[in-house]
Structures are given as C-alpha cells and as structure tokens.
Amino acid sequence: MSLTTKFLGLTLQSPIFVASGPASHDVNQIQLAEEQKAGAVVLKTACSDKYEHMRAWPRPRYKLLDWDKQIAGRSKSFSLYSYEQGYSGTLEDYWEFIRVCKKQATIPIIGSIFADDALDWQEMAKQVEQCGADAIELDISSPHKPGSVAFETTFVAAIKIVVKSVKIPVLVKLGPGHEVVQQCLAAQDCGASAVSLCNRMRGFDVDIESQRPILHGYYAGIGGPWAKYYTLRHVAEAAQEIKIPISGTGGVMSGEDVIKYVLLGASTVQILSVIMINGWDSISRINAEIEEYLTRKGLNSLEQICGKALEAMTSPEDIIRWSGEPKSGARNDWKEKGT
Length: 339
Prior knowledge:
Number of helices: 10
CATH superfamily: Aldolase class I
C-alpha cells in the first residue's frame, strides 16, 4: 500500500498538493509542506506588471463566516471569506522564489501566473520554466480577477501560447459554473496537460449594523467545506468528457474528501483552507486517513479507484421513481393542512 502517485510525469509521495495561496507564499511554508509529506506545492500566483496593484493586500483580508454555528449541537461549519490577490513581490522576486524553493525542496514545485496580454503570459511562463519549476498552473479563474478578462477572448489565447512556449506540464485552473466542461474541453484542445477544478467562488457579505460591506468593502473569494459538493459535481462531469488528468480542489477537510474526489476522477487533490484553519499537520493527518482507507479496502494505491464511482452513476432516465398509489390520505394531506 502506497500513497505514491504518478501525475504528469512527476512521481509524488502523496496525491495531496498545497494549493496556490497564502500557504505557499514563502520558502518556510514549502519546507513545512515537505515535512508533512505533501506531494507538491502550487506557489502563490504571480501577476504581470500590468496588474502590479494586485500585489498589495488590504488589512484585514480574512474573515471566518458562520464559524460559531452548529449543526445538531456539535458540527461546526464555516466559510473562509478573503481578499488576497497576487504574490506580494515583484516578478524578479518571484523568479528567485522559485529558484530557492527548488534548491531547498525535493517535492515538485509548480509555478502559478496571471496576466491578460498573450505576450505577458508567454514571457512569464518561460521565466517559470527557466527558474526550474516542475510545472505551471495558469490561474485564469481567480475570484479577484478583473471583470474585463474573459475565457474566450483572453484565456484561450493564453493557454495556446504558454503550451507552445514551455516544455513543462501546463495546468489550467478553472472556476465553478455552468461552462466548466466546455472550458475543460477547450483547455484540452489548446494542449493543456491537466485542469485544476475548481477555484473559489466570488462572494459578498454585509454587516447589518454598520450597513456596509464587510472587510475591504468589495467582493471576496469564498470557500469552505460546503464548496466540495459543487466541485465534486464539476470533477465528475469533466472526467466523463476529457482525457487529460484532473487535479481536484475545493472544501477538502479530510482523507474522506480526498477519496471522494479520486472516486469521481481526480488524480490529485489540492488543499488550502484546512491548512489555514487547522494547521500544517492537516496534511499528514489526511495522508494517514487515506492510508487507513487503502488498508481497510485492501488497495495498493488510490490510482486503483480513480473514477470508480462514475461507473455506478445512474442516468436520469434510469432513476428508479416511485409510481405506486400513495398511502391512504397522503395525497390530500396538503389540502387539510392549508398548504
């Protein structure tokens, strides 16, 4: 039994990635990820110089929503609401960041970039490769991205030019929504090596006492344990349509969540919120929970069950629907209650 995973030609000690974000912003964090046996780290996203303003973050930039609410008196729920944009240094700082990470870490390092102009995407991608990154993720779906950039007019061209310009694997990170499958197919057609599903949603919250938007006063990224159900659906849909691998991400808090992603077709799984809420040892805990599952099921690796749940999916036409007569009086109960 082993957590060793093959992904895009890389050999990983675990299928767990640290997702791009505040937990992958400095070298010390990369070392913590390696100590906890993460499979790889996706670095914080670097923005092109055109979006230099996205390198400065507001304070405060995080808030836990619904943290104190309980379900059945015990289970806590939460939403992580935040507005943190690109890597806070210059592009030169980022290139050096990649180089230092590669010197000090043995696990794969994946660069992450954002731009809008095709030539900026190209230049940044080439720099990521030259600095030694093992792969690159195109963050085309950040909840903080400018509203002026669109998939068809901006990102299709970006994927194409990056794929042609580098030899390392290219992942495309997509956001949730009704166009996910079509965008996955487009990314595949453009030559992407894999897709990451899905980025966080854009949300909004208001303080009713001050009658003002909370924190910085603008929309923010929002995620949490509840988000996995949306992303699990998107992973399942995409896995049935595309041939390139999927890296699942969104709402993962446990080994059980990771296993669900894999059963629906993901090859690797990225985590972030659980690290921020419960600490770095969440990685080793999740790994241990996966190992326990593999042992209990008599499996040698998660790769044996990748996509297995899809085989048991029922088509809408084949769903067993109740067609008998209702119990006595049930049909008219709603009338008696005045509904």
